[in-house]
Amino acid sequence: MNPGPRFRRAAVNLALLAAAVLLCCGAMELALRAIFARSLDFSMEMWKYAAQLKRPVADAKLSFAHAPNRSAVLMGVPVSINSHGLRDYEYSEQKPPDVYRIVMLGDSTTFGWGVPLEQTVAKILERNLNRAGVPGRGRVEVLNAGVGNYGTVQETAHYRAFDRAFHPDLVVLEYFINDAEPAPVERNPGLLGRSYLLAFAISRYDALLRFAGRRPPWYEYYARLYDEGQPGLRAAEDALAELAALTSADGAALLVAILPELHRIEGAYRFEREQRKIQDVLAADRIPAIDLIEGLRGHGEESSLWVTPADPHPNGKANALIAAQMEAWILANAKTGSPGAWHTRR
Are 175 and 259 in contact (CB under 8 A)? Predict the structure, then answer.
């Protein structure tokens, strides 16, 4: 029997199947783009953030940074990155003589995940300090240098590469429990950086693995970051010491504000052991620090401080409580003399 007709029929059927699959994938891609154009899905919104607002950089300690002059809608909130790569208004690098300038370093909590710019800690603190007046200082500017998914190593590298050019009088680093993660290696996302369908499939596969117990729960993962010998923890400790040296050389004060993980802050704090390790490092290096947990307690259910019921990033209410604690520290220490006197590292 001549196999030619059978082969041609099989090839036609295969081509029709491939066309149908591509058509279905295209339809799903368009549907997901419409569904997630303005969503509150944490995984997909974080992917959109990385795909639309970040770019790889050559510095291995930095890995990625914000792409200047880009905008997106994330968690239903418009987000714009200025010409310096900050989620903030435009500021000149040359500091005006009457300005007292603060740079805030941190991750997505400092960036202001899920809240408008005016509800970020940086902008609340800026308004509060200008309203209260800082003794012996002029107008206050608080620059938001937070970048989502950063750890302490990257925050220090960001200050070294970008933020010290703004000549801050005070640098505030907001430390979070996952800041001891090793700095990631950023690669060109390729198709993944453009396809909603691929991003959705990967995010759901990851969730399935966690649900099935094939990956550790988030709280176990965070705790393991602080086990003895973990390279990420040692790198974070070194980065804190480096940041202290950099700010001291720049004549700027340094404050580390330790932000608790907001799932459970009433009663015994889950990460007390891990937080104590960082507090001990800061004390040994004589870096001023404040623990933000007390100022966040006693304000209702923990979830009232979250962006959404499924996303415990600080919301506007929590950011106001955080900014109030930083304001109190700044006003109290401003009375002691020049900003450089606040930096007690020797």
Answer: yes
pTM exceeds cut of 0.85: yes
Question: Which residues are 86's β-sheet partners?
Answer: none
Taking the CA atoms of the chain, what radius of gyration do you get in angstroms?
23
Contact indicator for 181, 151 with CB cutoff of 8 Å: yes
Q: Give domain limits for the chain.
A: 80-185+206-342
Residue 126 DSSP one-character state:
H
What does the alpha-carbon distance between residue 90 and residue 270 come to, in Å, rounded to a whole number?
Answer: 39
Dihedrals phi, psi of 203, to nearest 5 degrees: -65, -40
DSSP state of 193: G
Question: CA 191, 192, 194: angle at the middle one, nearest 5?
Answer: 70
User: Is 80-185+206-342 CATH 3.40.50.1110?
Assistant: yes
Per-residue pLDDT tens over the stretch 292-341: 999 999 999 999 999 999 999 999 999 999 999 999 999 999 765 444 44
Sign of the Cα pseudo-torsion (311, 313, 317, 318, in order): positive
Write the single-letter amino acid at 308.
T
The answer to whether 184 and 149 are in contact (CB under 8 A) is yes
* Helix (H) or strand (E) segment spanning residue 288: none
* Tokens, residue 220: 């176990």
Spatial CB neighbours of 269, under 8 Å, sequence gap ≥ 6 = 260, 275, 293
Counting every residue, how long is the chain? Answer: 346
**Tokens 């693995």, located at residue:** 209
Handedness of CA 225, 226, 231, 234 (dihedral sign): positive
